[in-house]
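Hi support team,

I've been running sequence recovery on a batch of backbones for a student project. Most finish fine, but this one hangs at about 90% for roughly twenty minutes before it completes. I'm not sure whether the input is malformed or the queue is just slow. I've pasted the structure tokens below so you can try to reproduce it. Let me know if you need the job ID as well.

Thanks,
M.K.
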């Protein structure tokens, strides 16, 4: 998903929030997964998380779910999500 400069900021934020909600559905609101088969992301290093998302997107790290999800993300989305989970945000 490429967000261009002509898209209003509120629309960009809504797109990001929808993508983040998709991540939270599996990895948990704060990144603490409730499922043993899904890794927890809470407090992981942001650079590491960004690199893993890029690897899923490029196909370097194939996964039937994460490769599809990462394909939707821009580089900025990846950085924002990595920051969100690395800081342990959420309720």
């Amino acid at each position: 998903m490429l967000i261009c400069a002509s898209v209003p900021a509120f629309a960009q934020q809504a797109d990001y929030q929808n993508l983040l909600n998709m991540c939270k559905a599996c990895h948990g609101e704060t990144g603490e997964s409730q499922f043993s088969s899904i890794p927890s992301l809470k407090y992981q290093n942001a650079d590491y998380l960004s690199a893993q998302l890029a690897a899923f997107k490029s196909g370097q790290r194939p996964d039937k779910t994460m490769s599809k999800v990462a394909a939707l993300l821009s580089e900025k989305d990846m950085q924002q999500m990595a920051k969100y989970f690395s800081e342990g945000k959420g309720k």
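--
Follow-up from support: It reproduced on our side and the slowdown came from queue contention, not your input. The chain has a mean pLDDT of 87. No action needed from you.
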